[in-house]
Amino acid sequence: MTALLDEHENLEVEPTLRELHIPSSTYYRWRRAKKEPCERHRRDTELTRQIQQIHTDSGGIYGSPRVHAVLKREGVYVGRKRVERLMREAGLAGISPRRTGKGFTRRDRDADLAPDLVRRDFTADRPNRLWVTDLTMISTLEGPLWLSAIRDAFSRRVVAWETSAHADADLVLATLEYALASREVEPGQLIHHADHGCQYTSVKLTTRLVRAGIEASMGSVGDSYDNALAENLWMLIKTEGLRGRTFATRAEANLALFEYIDGFYNSRRIQKRLGYLSPVEFEEKHYAEQAASERVNLKPRQPALTS
User: Fold this and answer.
1) For residue 144, what is the DSSP state?
2) Which of 101, 98, 57, 92 minimizes the C-alpha distance to 239?
3) Rounded (10°) angle between helices 80-89 and 64-73
4) Distance between CA 68 and CA 64 in Å, rounded?
């Protein structure tokens, strides 16, 4: 109504309000609110700007739960429902990961298979106790780009990833070597879980696992639940990092993977299961708590007083 009267200045206010059965007090209250918005409206405007910035920084990925968590991390305490409302009014929404289609596992029926040491329990009480690994394919106009990755079950961190034009044993071995070079692994303490793909039953990989003192574990073929943590990673990468994109070359796709995995997922993407921390932050918190506990245990105690 205020916009209508502002637009048509030739209209007289009082007669117009009488025709529309709107009390003049109501109209003038609207005008005051427009010129001098109440504190809540001003706060909503400020919050909306912050929410839009958080949503943009996440690449348009975060929905209201993660936006609410980021606001809390930044010292902004606001109700979850209010965040939902403001996002809805601003036309902002997160992205829900979806299954990405069929798998690419090819089994060597003559290979010796490792036992399933995980049995769908993808949890660990510290880093480098359970790694899950898998292969997936990224389409490019130049041809397929195969992505191999290893994910730590403790922090959900991608500890290593490699790409190649070929889905062979050399690719998964290169990924393992990268992981071993970047992490401190205790022989006999780590499980390496994969499916029955021929790359993971190859002599090259199994020999390297034995040399490193790593126990091999395998789920079944064609059952996403037996390697759910790896399958979940592909859903995140393809839904959040690569969605709607067509890559002209493998190099272009490789850069997009780097930007998502190293530039966002590991270091910045907060997760509910990690207490709304990123994988890197979750590991840093673990090591900080471990160091603090060790300092307490090493602190010399005062001798007991005797009478």
Assistant:
1) -
2) 98
3) 120
4) 6
- Using DSSP's 3-state secondary structure scheme, residue 215 falls into strand
Find where tokens 């010399």 sit: 300
Other Cβ atoms closer than 10 A to 270: 19
State the Cα–Cα distance between residues 279 and 270, nearest whole angstrom.
Answer: 7
pLDDT tens-digit series, residues 122-175:
999 999 999 999 999 999 999 999 999 999 999 999 999 999 999 999 999 999
Strand 191-194 relative to strand 130-138, pairing = parallel
Calpha distance 84→69 (Å, rounded)? 12
Matching residue, tokens 């706060």: 43
Name 132's bridge partners.
Answer: 151, 193
Residue 102 has φ and ψ, to the nearest 5°, of -70, 160
pTM for this predicted structure: 0.79
Distance set, CA 99 to CA 53, 63, 181, 197, 220 (Å): 28, 19, 32, 20, 18
